[in-house]
Amino acid sequence: MGFPENPAANSALTNEEERSIYRPVVEFPECIWKDRIKPLIVDKQEYEKQAKEIEMLKEEVRIMLIKVKEAKTSEKLELIDTIERLGISYHFEKEIDELLEQIYLQNGNNSNAEEDLQNDLYATALLFRLLRQHGFNISSDIFRQFLDGMGEFKESLINDKRGLLSLYQAAYVRTHEGNILDKAVVFATTHLEHGSQQEMSPCLAKQVKYALDQPLHRDVPRLQARHYISVYEEDEGKNPLLLRFAKLDYRYLQILHRKELDELISWRDDLKNCVPKVPYSRDRVVECYFWAMSTFFEPQYALCRLTSAKTSVFITLVDDTYDAYGELDELEAFRNAIESYVAINRFILRWDVKEADRLPKYMRPIYIGLIKLGDWVDEELKKRGNSRRYASAKYIEEWKQYVRTSYTQSCWFLNRELPTFQEYTEVGLITSTNYLLTPASLLFMESYTEDVFNWLEKNPEIVVAGAKFGRFINDIASHETERERGATGLECYARHYNVSEEEAIKKLEEIVEDGWKDTNEELLRPTAVPRENLMPVLNLSRMVDVTYKHYLDGYTNPILVLEPHIVKVLLDLIVV
């Protein structure tokens, strides 16, 4: 095939049963965390003391939320926004939802808008964003008061930097309604980018810089909270109680997450029967945990994080085997092994361990590891009652789909075939891993009922949209390197429609933006499933946006994007 051999890989794989072959080995960047992450030692007494203070402060904030019911709408919005951006709103979901429902009933359309919101761009945009983020379908017509006779945003708004930032953030919760919010994001972005820093307070300037790089609605909660705590700390009008609560809570969760990461690293180290035999694969266990923790950070989802992270570790192993190492007959054998499950009953599926004997030696540990992962998932579900074990079948089925389509992509590459854009999309949405990571993430949520299972079976728009993000943003970010290993969606689109690479990128970007509008529509009430199930799906999409920021492949090359995020969120404990 003309590819250089990988001596390190061959030394691990050579045996008299396997022929000497040339392989499409890719030189992936090494793990950047070796010797940087040590087991976290926690002062248990101090940790418990902080937990008690958190509980005390929580009740004081709850009282604040009760008292603000009698305040102006703008004051209610400010308090809710501050609590949410500081990362502590998960303690007060019921109270916040009640407040927003009250606000929606009073301000849900232009005719009902209170006086303290009229002609106030900042407050109006804040109202719109918060209601939309919580699923209330407030009309974008609320912004028509800020348009001129030509239907454009008034020039007089240009100097209102605080209002422009609020409008900018609100525009990212847009759906497929009219074009007023499409205009809003262009208008706000243009005048925030070209505005002088001297026109803004240091605190506002810091927020603008961050937002232009990472809009609030597309940011992951823990990153946003860490950033906003640093901003709020410098705010002259800050509430010291809220600030201390936010810092204590953030540190408390950091320690919890670090202990989970230590557990995952220990689990990975126990896979030593597997890891030395696949030296061609990326070691991204820390990044896998960061993805899982960013999907849901709340304490009660520890098992969800662990399942999602373990699944991601094996996805990486399988992806690199299909994408960068295996020969076609080997990949076919692995696909057949994954297809050869044993049905215990209609809900419980198990892979057949005997199939390992049919695989090349380097593949056997991966397959055995997957069997153990599937068995672990089933046992954990069994502990929660047999009525939950239907979820195990969905998990196994999505693994089958993922491996099946990975094999199809490998056939295209190794046979030098270029699929049509439609063919590529049908397969690529599955290999984006979103269809697999979504059920893996939801498996151990209490609200993951059979109704949610059936909803997932229909591939809802919010999941499809996340798959589009994972596929096409990844394709744009990695097409220079990926083209050595096979065509991406970018090449398929350009060739299929006979357009330039630049035009193909523009089209994929349009597909992504439409996907965000689909996502936002799926979040509006009434939702098909509980909101608790939708938020991890949204956060998976957010993680794609963060990981491939500026079209850099931050997963393959963590040092380009993810390293500072991981350090900030997981390794550097916030100072209280």
TrEMBL record:
Biological process, per Gene Ontology: diterpenoid biosynthetic process
Pfam family, one: Terpene_synth_C
SUPFAM superfamilies the UniProt entry points to: Terpenoid cyclases/Protein prenyltransferases, Terpenoid synthases
InterPro entries: Isoprenoid_synthase_dom_sf, Terpene_cyclase-like_1_C, Terpene_cyclase_plant_C1, Terpene_synth_N, Terpene_synth_N_sf, Terpene_synthase-like, Terpene_synthase_metal-bd, Terpenoid_cyclase/PrenylTrfase
Keyword Coiled coil listed: yes
GO MF terms held by the record: magnesium ion binding; myrcene synthase activity
Domain Terpene synthase N-terminal: 44-212
TM ranges: none
PANTHER family named in the record: ALPHA-HUMULENE_(-)-(E)-BETA-CARYOPHYLLENE SYNTHASE, OS04G0344100 PROTEIN-RELATED
Name of the featured protein: myrcene synthase
Taxonomic lineage from the root: Eukaryota, Viridiplantae, Streptophyta, Embryophyta, Tracheophyta
